[in-house]
Amino acid sequence: MRSVASPNLTWRSLHWVTALACALAFSTTNGAAKHDLKDVQNRLQTLNRDLAKSEEKHSDAADQLKDTETRISVATKHLRELSDERKAVQTQLNELNSQARRLDAQAARQQAQLGRVLRSQASQGERDALQKWLSGTDPNQSARDEYFLTRLSQAKANLIKELQGIAVEKRTLAQKVAEHKAQILAIEKNEQGSREELLALQKQRQLTLTSLAGKIKAQRREIGSLKRDELRLSKLIEGLGKNSPASKKPSVGADVECRLSTADPLRRRKAVLCETPASPPSVKPKPVSPRSKITDADPGKIAGVFGQLRGKLRMPTIGQIKGRFGSTREDGGTTWKGIFIRADEGTEVRAVAAGTVVFSEWMRGFGNLLVIDHDDDFFSVYGNNQTLLATVGRQVNAGVVVSTVGSSGGIPEAGLYFELRHKGLAFDPLKWISSGAK
Q: Would 60 be classed as within a structural domain?
C-alpha cells in the first residue's frame, strides 16, 4: 500500500499554508470579531486543494456516495426551508383571519349602535320650528330636543362612515387572505416536488449502498483507510486553525512575516514568534501502532469564553452514546477520537457553543461534515450528517440547529460523530459536557 504523501510534500504543503495564515493574521485587525465570508471561502478552497494534493490517489467506494449525499443534503435543506416558509405564511394568514373576525365583531357592534340611534331619532320626531312654536312647547325644551337630534344625526353619520371604512378594510383583508392562500398552495406544490426529488435521491443512494456494501464494509475495516480518514480530518482542522482570521497569534513557520519583521526594528520581536527551520525535519515521525492508546489533549481549565464552558456544554443531539473517546471502533482497530451518538435520521443537531461555521461540505470518511470555530483554538466537529443547514461564514449561537443526523459517508447506521479539538488535537468531549446531559 502506498503512503498518504511523501514527508517533503506534506511539509511543504503545510509550510505554505502556515506562511499564508501568518501573513493574513497580521493583515487583520487585532480582536476582529467576525470572519469575512469571501476570505474564509477562498482560504477553504485553497486548503481543500492542498489536502487533495497530499492524499493518496486511490479509489474509495464511499466516494461514489458523495454526489448523491450532497444533493440529499441540499434537497432536505430546501424542504426544511419551504416548511418554515409555509409555517410563516400560515401564521400571517391566521393573523389576517383574526383581524377579519375582529372587524366583523366591530361592524356588528357599530350596526347595533346605529340601529339604536335611528330608533331614538324616530321616536323624537322631526317637527319644524313653526310647529313647535304653535304647539306652545317650551322654547328651552325645544332647544334641548334640537340639540339632542343634532347629536344623533352626527352620531349616525359617524357610524355610517366607520362602517364604510370597515367594509373597505375587510375587502383589503380578503384580498390578502386570498394571496396568502395562493402562496401556501404554491409552497405546498414546491414541497411536493422537493419530496419526490428527495425520495428519488434516497432510492439512488440506497442502490449505490447495496451495490457497494461489501467494498464499503471492507474499506471501513481497513486500518489504513481509517487512518487516512483521521489524518485528513486532522489536516483540515490544523489548516482551519492556522487560517482563522480570529487567530490572535502568528502561526509558526510564516516566512513572509519573518522577513517583514526582521526588516523592521519595531517589529523585530514578532520575528521570534514565527521562526522555523527552512527545511523539513530529516527524521520521519515514528508510525503509531493502530491499537495504541490515544492521547487525550484536554487543555483542562483554561481562560477564554469557550474555556469557561468546561462541564457545561449540552449534547449536540438527542441519542445514545455508542462510541466513546479512546475506545476501539467496531469497524476497525483504530480508536475513537470523539464520540458517536446513535440517533434517528433527521434528528436536529445543535451547536454546543457560539462560533463561526468554517467548514460545511462532504468529506471522505465523515460524509456531510460541519466544523465550527469557537476561537481560542477550539473547534467542534459534527460528522455523518444527513443535512447541512449552516453555511460557511455563518455566526451561530449555542443551541442553534446547524444540521440533522444521518448516515452519510458510508456508515452502517444513523448517528452523529462529534469531536472537540484544541490547537488541532482531539480531547474527550464528555469531560466538557454537563453530567446531566450525558
A: no
